[in-house]
């Protein structure tokens, strides 16, 4: 049938707009959204947990929706698919995390909001890769993405106080390595054994990249700073140790409750991501507390400042 008006074209394309959008990334979706008001209205009206958003999330990681995921497990554990797509649009390989000029690392800097967005990306990407795409995390975060993520975290953790984020990034890893484990377990409890094993493999790949590429600076400097000679129980667990415990927890049967001895570590973190302090005013006293390795005095210092929650990577 010949088309008599350009609105006929829009009407025909609009009938399959959601099918088209499923195969696009967030950049292409924004381009479609800006084409005409009809498409913008349809995309904006899409239910936040619709299959379109889920397909977009998988596409943004270079994968497709796996067909082996139980239907009741197609929603994310802590957020909607629409919000997940917004988080995943900040891919480490394509997002400018670092500010600065010249070739010297000392001239580079990264802002806390940028670090928070990057850490958000890791949480969502790890869950989606393991459950919804069923692909190894190494296929999601390849060479350029690994380099950019590693540089961003290194810069954030090597900046001088009050901009240093070692404590915040470490606390994030302690909490969210296990948060991803619980999300995978809850969503894949009724999946087949093959799908569950692929989820374990994907998460194992995620932990390997995080501990060997993205976060090793923390083990070399932050964790070592608080080592207590001859007293392993009083020292902070390393990034690798936390990752190992998370992987072991995921090896347990998905449909069975966790045993009492299977729990995440709860170290006394000197400067956690959940505590906001006036770092400018406390910088010199923090350094003294660090050098004295007096963790109890340092924690008391935080309490005296009326510490409040700083940033949370909650996906509610």
Task: Give an overview in words.
The protein has helices at 6-15, 17-21, 26-33, 37-45, 51-60, 81-88, 112-133, 137-140, 143-158, 166-187, 193-214, 216-225, 239-251, 279-292, 295-304. It has a domain at 66-273. It is globular and about 60 Å long. Residues 1-10, 271-299 and 305-316 have low confidence and may be disordered. Helix 11 runs antiparallel to helix 13 (239-251). With 316 residues, it is mostly helical.
Chart the SSEs and their pairings.
Layout lengths: L5 H10 L1 H5 L4 H8 L3 H9 L5 H10 L20 H8 L23 H22 L3 H4 L2 H16 L7 H22 L5 H22 L1 H10 L13 H13 L27 H14 L2 H10 L12
Helix pairs in contact: 5-6, 7-10, 7-11, 10-13, 11-13, 14-15
Uncertain residue ranges: 1-10, 271-299, 305-316
The profile of the biggest β sheet is: none
Gyration radius, rounded: 22 Å
Q: How are helices and strands ordered from N to C?
A: HHHHHHHHHHHHHHH
| β-strand number | 0
| Residue-averaged pLDDT | 75
The percent range for helix content is: 55-70%
Percent strand = under 5%
The structure class reads mainly alpha
**Shape by Cα distribution:** globular
Number of helices: 15
Distance from first to last alpha carbon: 48 Å
